[in-house]
Every structure is written in C-alpha cells, then in structure tokens.
Amino acid sequence: MVFSPYARALQQVNDVDTHDAEQHEHEHEHEHEHKHTLESIIVRATRTGVALSDEPVRVQVIVGEEIQEKAMMRPGNISMLVAETGGVRVQTTSPALGSANIRLQGLYGRYTQLLSDGLPLYGGQSASIGLLQIPPTDLASVEIIKGSASSLYGGSAMGGVINLISRRPTGDNEAELLVNLTSRDGQDLTAYAATQIDKGIGASITAGLHHQASVDLDKDGWIDLAGYERVTARPRLFIETDNGSSVYFTAGVMQESRRGGTLAGTTVGSVGSPDFGGFVQHQDSERVDAGVIAEGSLYDSVNWHSRASLMLQKHNKEFGNIFEDDRHESYLIESNLSGYSDRTRWVAGIAFQSERFDSEQFSQFNYRFDTPGIFGELEHEFSDIISGSISARLDEHSEYGSQLSPRVSVLYRPSNFNIRASYGRGFFAPTPFVEAIEAAGLSRLDSLNDIREEKATTASVDIAYAHNSFESSVTLFSSSVDGVTELLPLSTQNNDTFDRVRLVNNPGESRIYGSELLLRYKYEALKLTASYLYLDATESIAPTGSNQGTRQRIALTPEHSAGFVAMWEEHGKFRLGFEAYYTGKQRLDNNPFRDESKSYWHLGLLGEITKGRVSYFINFENLLNIRQTKEDSLVLPNRAADGQWTTDIWSRNDGFVVNGGIRVNFGH
Fold first, then answer.
1. Of 384, 385, 469, 519, nearest in space to 33 by CA
2. Per the CB 3.0–4.6 Å rule, which of 203, 249, 317, 362 could disulfide with 442?
3. pLDDT at position 32, please?
4. CA torsion angle for 164, 170, 174, 179 (degrees, to 10)?
5. Which residues have CB under 8 Å from 603's CB, separation 6+?
C-alpha cells in the first residue's frame, strides 16, 4: 500500500464516481470491481491519505451522483447535501434568519469542524449562518468523520469533521451553468469553469448569485422564510511539478444581506402594552478567505506537507433597536512530515491556530485564542485483515491551557465484513456564541465568569457487510460531554421578569447513546437506500433542591428518525427519485405552547431529463406541506430572556415548495 500525497489523492477522488459511504459500488460494476473502486477512494481528512477500504477510522464519503442530486434540490447551500446522511442532523438555530448548524450523532453543532480541502476557511467555530452560504457547485466529494477528531484538528473538531473536497481540472476545458427557481420566490444562478492552463497547471472558478424573498406563510406579520441577497466567488489554482511536488491556492469572497423579523408596519409582543412595536432582525455579512497547501517528497518514503489559511468575516446585525457590528478572524499555519513502509504509515507535525473576535458595541466579549500544538498519527497493518491507528494532539490553548486529545481506531475485515472500533477524547474552547446567542445577539448576555473548557469522550463500533448488490452497516456509538456551556436566565431586581442570561458550564455530563442502521440494494437502474437512527441523549439538570441528579432529554434531539430513498436512473438520460424522512418527537425548551413536539414525515420527489449537454429538473419538497406554524405560533407572547422573539424550530418552516431549472454542461 503506497502513501498518496495531497495532489494525487485529490485526483483519485475526482476520478471516482461513487454514490456514498465506504461500500457503495459504481452502478455498472460487479463486486470485485466494487472492491477495486473502494481502493481508489483516497481519504484525506485522516491525514495519512490511504484508501477508504483500508482506513481504520470510519469515514463516510459522499461523491459524484449524490452531490449532483442535492445540488438540484438546494443549489444555494450544502445543508441538504449533509442533512440526508445517516447520523447527521441540520438544526435550525435562528428561526428569524433561518441559520442552521450541523449536529453529528446528537452532539451540538458548534462541536463540528467544517473544512474546505482540509483548510478551516469558514473559521474554527463556523458560524451557523455560514452553512447556508456555501454552494455545492464545485464539490467533488464530502468526507465526514463522526466522533471526536480533536486528535487531528484540535478543539474545533470535538464532535467530528466535515471536509468539503473541491473538483479539480481534468485536462479539458469544462464549464457548468445552473439556473434554479422556487415557488417561494427564490432564484439561484451558479456557474463553474475549469481549464488546464499549462502542463501541470490547472485553474477553476465557481460563482453564484442567490435571492430569496421574505415570506410570511401564516400571515401573522412575522417573516417565516428570511429574505436574502447573496453573491459568492471562489477561484482555485492547482500546480504540480515534474518531481511530484504540488501547490494548491484558493480564495473566496462572499457578501450577503439577510432580513427576518416583522414585516413593515407589523408589531409583536405584549410587553407593557398590547402594541410593543416592530422587531426587524437584519444581518449583513462579508467574508474573505484564502488558503494554500504545498507538499512534496524529501526521500522515497518521506513526504512534507504545509498548509495555511486565513478568514476575515464582518457582520452588521440589527436586533430591533440594538445594533451589533463585529469582526471574526481565523488563522492557521501547519506543517508536517509523513512516511510509509509496506505496513506502516506515520505523520508528525506542528500547528498554530488563532481565533479572534472583536465587537464594537460589546467589547467585554472580545477574545483572542492562540493555540500552538503538536500532533502525530501512526497506522499499522498487523495482518491482511487487521490494522489499527493511534493519533494524539497536544494543544497549548492561550485561555484554557494544555489539552491532550488522543484517538485509537481498529479495523478488522474478514471476508465481506468490515468491523471498525474507535475511541477518542477531545476538547472545545467555549465562546459566547452558543446557538441562542447567535440567534439573539449579545445585548442580554451577562459578563463571562469562570467558564472552563468542554471535554468529550466518544466511542463507536461499526459493522458493515457487502455482498453483490446488497450492503448494510450497523453503528453503535456513545458520547459523554463534561461542562457543556448553556444559558441560565437571570431575573431583574424585583425577581419577576427574566431579561438577562448568563453562560455557565453544566455541572453534570451530557450523555448520548445511539445506533445507526443503513441498508442499500441495487437492481439494474434502481437503487434503494433505507436508514434508521436511534438516539438516547440526556443532560443533567442544574442541581437545585429536589432535582439533584435528575436528567432530562436534550432538547431538539429526536429519539427516532429514519429515511428511505428510491432512485431510478439511466446515466445521461433521466433520473427519477423519491425520498421519505421521518423525525420523531423531541423535547422542547422554553416553548409556551408545548413541551414535546409532534413527529412528522418529509416526502420529496425529484425528476430530471438530460438531452445532450442540457438537463431539465424539477423537485417537489415537503409533499405533505408540513409546517410548524400550522400547529403553533412561531412568535412568543413575550420576548425570551436571551432576547429571542421566536420558539425553537422543531419541524419544517417552509411548507410545500417546488423548485426547478436547467443545468448546462459546456466543454468536454
């Protein structure tokens, strides 16, 4: 087994057209060819650059057809692309602005590290709104590691990693244009172009224009679908030399204006009088980022690898009569050496990461986290069917001191089975931006005092089986998080009204136990996929009086969820798909209308016809017209202590939506 450097791995990933995950076969291949395909998929999120089938760490990979399908359903962002992966939940964090984050196996979204080609271009702690600002246009694949990956990427990856892998030029000029319209007055225009400039030099660029009108579906004066105008652009440059060295450059710009809250002339609430006034929630965002990756060989079996990135993001926010202007900065510099022999691969490196926040109006919450660290990883094949890996990272955090994050993984693969087991520990450096503060702003947050780091222990066992056209996998996992930061309401002097919140560490543990089941079957042009997720997620209640040691379910975490997808496809001719997703009941926090949500189904239907270089598509989302505001008002009778005017989103908020358009491919 040969270690593949970055550029070679990227090319191999782009050459493979696989549906998903570690065992999904190419549509026209038999079982032995399927195994060959798995050996061609190179995983880069684990740093050693080995084939997916040989990787002891469980990595789910979404490539090819799956990305094309989701791009037709939601061309403006990657939320749907990742949301319909087993064990992944996209949770709306701000009903007013529509922002969302990614929860892996029940863990909070702030623990998920979002990367682009291994670079934190969206920040160490990616803002919830950022997920909705990344188009899938130029993606070749997506790698997902669930469970603590702090041993690889530090404190920002305590819950896992989602690595977005870009497309690269194939040698021929190519371009793609996608136009999309929705029944909710939304429009998307995305474009991708790539070319081979010279021998060993390729370039690509992707750009997008996106619009969504503000929509009040239940006619109560509150915007249910936030309106926005967004423009994005990202050029990339790939350079490979004759001696095997490579350099990769990327840069990105994004500008967005997003509006929620009340419509003009409408009012909310009953604070002091039946007419409290309007409440506009508005956010302007600007982001500029850049990254570089360089690598090459020192000796026949020793390689060097360096990467660096920066991200600058500005926000201008309006929460009623409160204005917040802030700036986020993120920097990374990293270098490592790696080597391999017939049965052993290793990586050793150093890194420096810096996260900074500066607020003009609320400077008491400004922070600067500087974190130098060292890390290492060792993989070894003990036999043809048993291999293992161990990785560890030591970070010296400027605020939270020394943090050691280890992870151990084992792969056992007899016959048609692949059995993986992993155990890891990690940490997270808290900031003021828990989900509710991102949604409501800093104005009601009390000064931070005695906040400590959050720590997690995660473990999983994955058993996968494949035979001919049938594939299955079962995953058992557990997580425990100590010191979860949460908001505690504070009362005014008369102890009657709660209008402030304080960020505190929960004195107990959050515990998550669960299992995933995945089944796939392919018969000629028909592909069937079924999945099920069980979560037993509980947290400690702050010990006061008789509730000492009492536990409750973590809010907005369904115990049962399931999915089914049927896809009938003839390459280059047509595609017809049906999907059904079930979300079970969820415990709700601070909701005056109910303590527990209802369960619901989400049904969708997709159709595409391809004529030469042009594809025509139409997508029907939420066929049952599920909408939370059919059950209860989204708007609270009184403003919450943290400043929000809305309940949490436990269901869908858009109702039945139709979108459709065309995709045109140019070049070869």
1. 469
2. 362
3. 43
4. -20
5. 578, 579, 580, 581, 622, 623, 624
What is the token pair recorded at 222?
């509150």
- For the chain, how far is it from start to end, CA to CA, in angstroms? 33
Quote the pLDDT of residue 542: 67
Backbone angles phi, psi at 198, to 5 degrees: -160, 180
Residue with tokens 């908001």: 487
Contacts of 66 (CB under 8 A, 6+ apart): 19, 20, 81
According to DSSP, the β-strands at 386-397 and 454-467 are unpaired
Q: What single letter denotes the amino acid at residue 376?
A: G
Give the integer Cα–Cα distance in Å for 305 and 303: 7
Q: Alpha carbon of 282 to those of 175, 225, 314, 318, 325: distances in Å?
A: 35, 13, 14, 5, 12
What is the CA angle 653-657-662, rounded to 5?
135
Structure tokens at 87: 């064990």
Which H or E run contains 130? Answer: none
Q: Check the CA dihedral 280-652-486-161 and report its sign.
A: negative
CB distance 352 to 370 below 8 Å: yes
At 123 the pLDDT is 86
Q: For strands 509-523 and 60-63, give the pairing.
A: unpaired
**Distance separating alpha carbons of residues 381 and 50, to the nearest angstrom:** 12
> Is residue 627 situated within a structural domain?
yes
Tell me the residue type at 663. Answer: R
pLDDT at 153: 94
pLDDT given at position 269: 66
Residue 392 and residue 330: Cα distance in Å, rounded? 23
Q: Is 385 left (phi over 0), alpha (psi -120 to 50) or beta?
A: alpha
Distance in angstroms (rounded) separating the CA atoms of residues 385 and 411: 8
Q: For 49, phi and psi rounded to 5 degrees?
A: 65, 50
Amino acid residing at 139 = L
CATH of the domain at 263: 2.40.170.20
The residue assigned the tokens 């863990």 is 107
Judge whether 180 lies within some domain. yes
Confirm whether 184 is domain-assigned.
yes
- The total number of residues shown for the chain amounts to 668
Q: Which residue has the tokens 């040989």?
A: 54
Cα–Cα distance for residue pair 370/373, rounded to 1 Å: 10
Do the beta carbons of residue 14 and residue 167 sit within 8 Å?
A: yes
Mean pLDDT by 10 residues, the chain (668 residues): 38 41 39 47 81 89 85 88 86 89 92 94 78 88 94 94 92 93 97 94 97 95 95 97 94 96 80 63 96 94 96 96 96 96 94 97 97 97 96 97 98 94 97 92 94 97 95 97 94 69 95 96 95 96 64 95 95 94 95 96 97 96 96 92 92 95 88
Q: H or E segment at 121?
A: none
Q: Contact, 154 vs 127, CB < 8 A? A: no
* CA gap 28, 24 in Å, rounded: 12
Residue 136: closest CA among 205, 76, 66: 76
Instruction: Count the domains in the chain.
Output: 1
The amino acid at residue 501 is V
Residue 32 corresponds to which tokens in the numbers above? 């032995």
> For residue 551, what are the domain limits?
6-667
Contact (CB, 8 A) for 101 and 90: yes
Q: Is 150 exposed, middle or buried (0-12, 13-18, 19+ CB in 10 A)?
A: buried
- On whether the CB atoms of residues 56 and 379 are closer than 8 A, the answer is yes
* Amino acid code (one letter) for 654: D
Alpha-carbon separation of residue 290 from 122, 248, 310 (angstroms)? 10, 11, 6
- Domain membership of residue 1 (yes or no) is no
- Going by the DSSP 8-state scheme, the letter that residue 545 receives in this structure is G
Residue matched to tokens 């595409």:
608
